Amino acid sequence: MKPSTLLTLTATAASTTAFTLPFKFRRDTVSTDDSSNNPNRRLVHSPPTYAGNAHIKAVTGSKPQSLRAGAYLPYNAPASTPEHPNANQDSINSVTGTVVIPTIYMPEFGPTAGNSVGEYSASIWVGIDGASAEAGNSTGSANANCNPLGQSLRAGVDIFWDGTLGGQQTPFVWAQWYPAEHAQGFLDFKVSPGDELRFTVNTGPHGNSGGGVLVENYGPPQSPKGVDGKVKIPIATGSLIWKDMPGLCGAQASWIIEDFPLQERPELPSALGNFTDVRFAEMGVATWLETNLTDEKVAKELKMLEIYDAGQGGTLAKCKTEGEGEKVGVVCERVVEA
User: Which residues of this protein are catalytic (predicted)?
Assistant: First the structure.
């Protein structure tokens, strides 16, 4: 695995409203005026509340409810040594990944299929923590018993299919320090299905209160040397920087597809769209002690997640590793399996 290109951040970085970076830096807290590039609705990037909706919970004897597919790498800090006395406090401080924005369709099978005037969605993100309650033995956070499912720094893209608009595809790119704030969008960041996005997520030592993300859109996938042998250059970039935020566990690198609720219905997961296969590639991981984890280690130690929602038909997305060496990746497929 080639070392990731990382943002250089510290806990004393400038605020999110004033920071000098060599690329456009803007964000919004509400919809932009460009309706062609924003969905009519937004997702709540937090679990459903399920208030008054017990019928969508997993039925007796079925698998536990899970609205998160993809893969994560739990990081177990090595034991400290005289040469490296802080090794046992090591934690993940950078995660990268690329993904091609899939095409989303109305499902043809399962209880949610065939709603031609409905809205379907899915969310794809890369981040630090947020995948599972498994914490490994990393003690990098202030709380040695830190639950990595309770907080995360992540960047992603939401995809929507809107039947009232003839099946319009409206990807929306966002970043979030969860749960301290709502997901933030990027002003003037143009994306379309089929574009290749690269996400870089970074935090300071021990998951401290400084962090940031960089999102790059390279347009339709190119060769490593770009079009006509030229170096690949992003057609759009966006970044966010945070300071004075709750610390992270730094115990997981996460590449996730998630079924979040719509803002209008936070108690229910959105009807998951039928999407073309999602492939996470260029999966880079680094720790604050400057350890770059290798492709071989990532491939061997990745743990897979699948979406299971009895109310939507059972298992809805399954993932597996694919390829080897520098081309190793995780491929997630949309399914309906009772």
Answer: 258 (proton acceptor)
